[in-house]
Amino acid sequence: MVFASGAHLAAPEATLESVQTMLDPDALVGCGAGGVLGRGRELESGTALAVWAATFDDGGAATPFHATLTEAETEHRLEGLPDLEGSSGLLMLSDPYSFPTDAVLEFLAEHAPTVPVLGGLASGRTSGGEGALFFGEEVCDGGAVGVSFQGVEMLPCVSQGAAPLGREVTITAAEGNIVHELAGRPALQTVEQIISELSPRERGLVAGGLLIGVVIDSGKPEYNQGDFLVRGVLGADSESGALVVGTQVAPGQVVRLHARDARFADEDLREALKLRVEALAGERPAGALVFSCNGRGSAMFGISDHDAEAIERELGGAPSAGFFAAGEIGPVGGRSFLHGFTATLAVFPRAS
Predict the structure, then answer these.
(1) 268 vs 64, 158, 228, 344, CA distance in Å?
(2) Which residues 6+ apart lie within 8 Å of 214 measured at CB?
(3) In this predicted model, what pLDDT tens digit does every residue of 19-74 receive, in sequence order?
(4) Strand partners, 138
(5) Which of 133, 266, 311, 338 could bridge across to 140 with cysteines, CB 3.0–4.6 Å?
(6) Rounded Cα gap, residues 221 and 112, in angstroms
(7) pLDDT, tens digit, for every residue of 177-205?
(8) Residues 6+ apart with CB under 8 A from 250
(9) pTM of the predicted model, to two decimals?
(10) How far apart, in Å, are the Cα atoms of 292 and each of 77, 266, 321?
(11) Can you give the residue ranges of every domain in the chain?
(12) CA–CA dist 8, 279 (Å, integer)
């Protein structure tokens, strides 16, 4: 996996040739980035290169792909996605201008529901303004690149960087992405009531932008932070009391208000990483790939290297690399979505 920023995008083919000469990988994919991450370090701008390499025991394989969308007068055709039968996970890096990532994730959820998909949207372009996706020795100007794993365990980790606020309520009337009623009352009225019950600090967070968390997998007795898909509240109708939110919703779904909060984002990332280490019986993973939102970094935390240092510490120094993405891909409630402001990781356990 290769992530390049700055001057490396003036002649990305030369950069890829150097990586190929040094490592001679069976599969190479990557993308242009506004900034990159390495072990304990973040370079949010300027010229940098992050390279992450892995080898697998017998039975493990990584199959690279380059997927494209062909537009015709009567239909759109998706080409190049790998056959996911038997896949243990998928890494995908998309060009945000030429590839319908949201729609493809919906397609994959329907046709390969057990395959976790992680990755992000490329955040850097060539000096000529073209897309920069890396596939072997080629630089592709559109579509999506990635790898499909076979026999390789990949643990997803998604930290959404938003604090839950107030009590949980149930959607009682909704259509598409419009919430008409919450707990049997007009949605706006219910939200205003919940906000009035918050502490002064929490109301201050809401003033910076209201978000809503929607439970995707409702088959649990209680819900934790990782169970909510966090999306923006896009608008409200004061007459009808309806809310417009950034995802499809349905009656019966449980929701909770959220807001961006650097302090909670720090705690949530560390807790999510601790849970992954616990799942590995406390053993340090073999490595991790990191896809952090380009709205995080020093803009969110006020300091440099926040996510990279947290990952370095919580994963015991496991080799990690990644980039600051224009959108992050990772699962919530068993289904993969495109997110914003998240730190998303693909954590790879050591071979047993």
Answers:
(1) 32, 9, 13, 12
(2) 228, 229, 231, 245, 247, 249, 253, 254, 255
(3) 999 999 999 999 999 999 999 999 999 999 999 999 988 789 999 999 998 876 66
(4) 135
(5) 133
(6) 27
(7) 999 999 999 999 999 999 999 999 999 99
(8) 171, 174
(9) 0.93
(10) 30, 13, 10
(11) 2-159+264-348, 163-259
(12) 38
* CATH level 3 topology of 163-259: Elongation Factor Tu (Ef-tu); domain 3 (2.40.30)
The CA distance from 273 to 311, in Å, is: 7
| Separation between Cα atoms, residue 314 and residue 279, nearest integer Å | 13
Say how many C-beta atoms besides its own lie within 10 A of residue 91's C-beta: 24
Are 269 and 292 a contacting pair, CB within 8 Å?
A: no
pLDDT tens-digit map of 214-239:
998 877 778 887 889 999 999 999 99
- Identify the CA nearest to 91 among candidates 297, 333, 321, 312: 321
Task: Name the amino acid, one letter, at 156.
Answer: P
* Residue found under tokens 């896949």: 87
DSSP for 113-146 reads TTS-EEEEE-----TTS---EEETTEEESSSEEE
320-325/36-38 β-pairing: antiparallel
- Rg over alpha carbons for the chain, rounded to the nearest Å, is 21
DSSP H or E segment with residue 196: helix 187-196
